[in-house]
Specification:
Layout lengths: L3 H13 L2 H8 L3 H15 L4 E4 L2 E4 L1 H26 L6 E7 L1 H6 L1 H11 L3 E7 L5 H6 L5 E7 L10 E16 L14 E4 L5 H12 L5 E5 L3 H9 L5 E4 L10 E17 L6 H19 L13
Parallel strand pairs: 3-4, 3-5, 7-8
Antiparallel strand pairs: 1-2, 5-10, 6-9, 6-10
């Protein structure tokens, strides 16, 4: 019989590439991971890994088992959800990972609803960059997490996760109040405030400028939108910001609408959609997104399409 905990380690080895990375993700020692994978090989009756010094690669049998591991782990999530659904009252931990702007705008209403409807739930919120959410879900550090991408910088769906759409929001060019800038093209000679290299916000700003035929003259890097808007208001440059980040624009900043959109989704492990705790979290976030969208007049829309 194949141990599902060991299957999870093999699946994560295929994703992360090294035993040390798997050990870090699961808070094990590298030697403990190696021992568990060796035990999995004995259970499978086949060599799953080839080792050359410190390098480890999957054998053809290992790749086959990884594909089946995804199916097995999904089925276990569904079984856990079915058992939990038999309970009369929701209780236990509910761990939510969300990016800062969502923590400030969407989560408060969702947490209030969850606390009122399910007082026995233990609510835990972790501020997470969307790029960190898939790993946090796989490693079971969170139960649901918020992701986002942009139409100009789409992110491929993760095969281990399911998602439900929450918000489709406009993106703006933030410029100092009193300036005549009315488009990205008008900002080609401006200085820019962009996210740190490697972040999605950095990529989006560069792609929008490239589409307009220029490379931005970056003066500042900032990842917190409050900081970004303060720099813009101080005349230090212009910046691309999603509407969720500026529910109340500062008086010294003007927002120029762009045609670009940002899409926010709630993600959970594949197979766990029927778990009552996950379903309660998704419903609360969905209602919070609906209320937020209807309380603004900025073109924010909501969708319940599921990938």
């Amino acid at each position: 019989m194949l141990d599902p905990r060991r299957l999870r380690l093999l699946r994560d080895l295929a994703r992360l590439g090294t035993i040390s990375a798997v050990a870090d993700a699961h808070r094990y020692t590298a030697s403990a991971v190696s021992q568990q994978l060796s035990a999995l090989e004995r259970e499978a009756g086949a060599a799953l890994l080839t080792r050359s010094g410190r390098r480890v690669e999957l054998t053809p049998a290992g790749h086959v088992l990884v594909r089946h591991a995804e199916v097995v782990l999904d089925a276990l999530e569904q079984a856990e959800a079915a058992v939990a659904s038999a309970g009369a009252r929701l209780s236990g931990p509910l761990r939510i990972g969300a990016f800062p702007t969502a923590v400030r705008t969407l989560l408060p209403a969702a947490l209030v609803r969850l606390g009122q409807e399910h007082p026995d739930l233990e609510l835990h919120v972790s501020e997470l960059d969307p790029a960190a959410v898939p790993d946090a879900l796989r490693e079971r550090r969170v139960d649901v997490g918020l992701l986002h991408d942009y139409d100009v910088a789409p992110v491929d769906p993760d095969p281990a996760l399911d998602t439900a759409a929450l918000l489709d929001e406009p993106v703006h060019l933030a410029v100092p109040a009193g300036t005549g800038t009315a488009s990205i093209d008008d900002a080609r000679d401006s200085t820019w405030v962009v996210g740190s290299p490697g972040t999605l916000c950095h990529t989006v700003a560069l792609r929008l400028c490239r589409a307009a035929g220029f490379h931005p003259r970056v003066r500042h890097h900032a990842d917190d939108f409050t900081t970004v808007l303060a720099l813009v208001g101080a005349g230090q440059g212009v910046a691309v910001v999603p509407r969720l980040a500026v529910p109340h624009p500062p008086a010294d900043v003007r927002l120029v609408p762009l045609s670009t959109r940002r899409r926010t989704r709630v993600a959970f492990r594949r197979g766990s959609a029927g778990h009552p705790v996950v379903a309660a979290a998704v419903a609360a976030l969905d209602d919070a997104a609906r209320a937020y969208g209807s309380s603004t007049s900025t073109g924010i829309s909501r969708s319940v399409l599921r990938w």
